[in-house]
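Recall that a protein's primary structure is simply its ordered list of amino acids. Everything else, from secondary elements to tertiary packing, is in principle encoded there. The following example makes that idea concrete.
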Amino acid sequence: MKRMAVLWAAVLLLISGMSFAQESEAIMAQVRARYKDVTDFKADLELISCASATGTCHRFEGKVEMKRPNKLRMDIKKPEAQQIVCDGRSLWLYIEKDKQVIRTDLAESRDFLVLLNPLGKLLTGKVKNGCKTNGNYQCWLDIPDFKELFKEVKVIVDKKTYEITGIDVVDMSDNSSEYRFTKIKTNSGIKEDRFNFVVPKQAKLIDAN
């Protein structure tokens, strides 16, 4: 009788696990459907970035714009002005106070949000450790193209709209970034020239490649 009870408990646990996995995949299927016809995305941005080596974290505020297939613009206002632009070929980082521009080939970029923008390969990820509910959905993803770059990728999904309102990333060196999006707008017709970067006068250009 005791053996039967243990066996039945194991069967229930297996069924529960399968149901949980199916529910998690169903959530991500809704997310993919939400973004299927989205060509551009913009939002207010809050970013918390932490360096494992020093144990220090920094908080940034600004705005972000994205356009399929691989264009991105971040205008950071706080704590100091910075601009990050990905034009589909190169990544440009402009640090205003230093009057310095750093250019990196897109293929060499390790900028988390450039790699994991909601309009790109992020949506190819499959649920890894399921989804939890804490006001919104929190889903951990396995993205094969980035398995050598990231230990963990988590998306925060609005339960009503299935919009991605946050992305949490941990890389192989345990550096982490948390992105939060508010005032989200999609398919607003962002112009291509928003992703054209011109080196400001007086700024020094550094080619990272």
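Residues 4-20 have pLDDT under 50 and may be disordered. Residues 2-207 form a domain with the outer membrane lipoprotein receptor (LolB), chain A fold (CATH 2.50.20.10).
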